[in-house]
Amino acid sequence: MIVAKRMMRNPVVVDENDSMKKAMDILKEREIRHLPVLRGGDKLVGIVTEEDIKQASPSPATALEIREIFYLLDKIRVKQIMTRRVYTVSPTAPIEEAAAVMREKKIGCLPVVEKGRLVGILTETDILDAFLESMGVHGPGYRVELGVPDSPEVLLEVVRFFHGLDASIVSLATVSHEDPKRKVLVLRVETNSYKVLKAAIKKSGYELLTAD
């Protein structure tokens, strides 16, 4: 799956010379947490987040009146509070590559840039949705975890095993096993008789770790 399949196209943006109050209002009205910041209508120069707004806002303990606070917020420019170092991703990048960048840099979104132009934005929620879809969480079937030998032919063996039981594999992922010579297969499987399937797995010699 590539970023283009999950990103939000034509994201809401602000100009670097827009007021902090305008950015606040947009974040609240659109119920979003990140705003790419543009210069001249097309050049990405920063990003402003809820955290940026919070840090730049007057303290709740301030003696300023509401009208004075609004006046100040209207005078502060987005470019004064935005995060200038922006990590970006290409729309053709694998979704897991984008997730790795977000995890490593501890950021909540990635503006998507193609040929120097902002074409979308990818958020943590988009990453989670992609993960849930790839694992078949909202689809039919049963979740099964198998401990198997870490060998090249094991996947083919497992596929043949389930096919022989007239069970369809909806999704499949691999994760590490506590034994370095083994790995864990996480499957979502459709079958007409789940009890028969579980019994067959237990007799097969595969290590049945969990089965929902």
For the biggest sheet, the summary is: 4 strands, antiparallel
Question: Tally the helices: what do you get?
Answer: 8
Please provide the ordered H/E string of secondary-structure elements: EEHEEHHHHEEHEHEEHE
Radius of gyration: 24 Å
By DSSP, the count of extended strands is: 10
The CATH superfamily of the largest domain is known as CBS-domain
Beta-strand percentage? 25-35%
Helix-strand blueprint:
Elements: E1 8-9, E2 14-15, H1 20-30, E3 34-39, E4 43-49, H2 50-56, H3 66-75, H4 78-81, H5 95-105, E5 109-114, E6 117-123, H6 124-134, E7 142-149, H7 154-164, E8 168-176, E9 182-190, H8 194-204, E10 207-211
Parallel strand pairs: 2-3
Antiparallel strand pairs: 1-6, 3-4, 5-6, 7-9, 7-10, 8-9
Task: Explain the overall architecture.
The protein is elongated, with a radius of gyration of 24 Å. The strands form 3 sheets. The protein has a 4-stranded antiparallel sheet with strand order 8-9-7-10, covered by helices on one side. It has a 3-stranded antiparallel sheet with strand order 1-6-5. A 3-stranded mixed sheet has the order 2-3-4. It has 2 domains: 3-132, Roll (CBS-domain); 138-211, Alpha-Beta Plaits, CATH 3.30.70.260. It is an alpha+beta fold and 212 residues long. The protein has helices at residues 20-30, 50-56, 66-75, 78-81, 95-105, 124-134, 154-164, 194-204; strands at 8-9, 14-15, 34-39, 43-49, 109-114, 117-123, 142-149, 168-176, 182-190, 207-211. The model has no long low-confidence stretch (mean pLDDT 88). It is 36% helix and 29% strand.
